[in-house]
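Entry 12.
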Amino acid sequence: MKTELKNLTDRIHQLAQKVKATNIQEVVDDPEWQELRLWLKGKWAAHGPECVRRLREYFEKDKTNPWRVRRVLNYVTCSGFRTGAIKEPSVDALREDVRNTWQQLLGDKATHKSGGKL
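Predicted 3D structure (C-alpha cells):
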C-alpha cells in the first residue's frame, strides 16, 4: 500500500512538473476554465466576493489536478492583482491556498515560493 501511494505521489509530482513547463496557452485551453474566465471578466469591482467564491469552487473541485491548480494560480497572480487594478481582499486567502497546493503538487523539486517562481 505504501508503495502504491508513493508511486501515485510520484506520478502527480511528475505531471505537475510537466504542467509547469507547458505553455500557458495550452494550460488554459479548457472549456470549463474558459467559461469561468469569461464570467469573471469585468465583474470584480461589483461582485468580488462572488468571483472569489467561483474561483475557489473551481479550484477545490479537484485540488490534485495540476492543470486545474495551475490555471487558478496563473489567474490569481496576474497583473490585475499585482498592480492593484483588481481589488478584492478575500482573494488573498485563495491565492495562498492555491500557492501552497501548487507547491505540494510539485513536490521536492518545487522552487520555494519566496525564492523564485513556482
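Annotation: The mean pLDDT is 91. The chain has one domain: 2-109.
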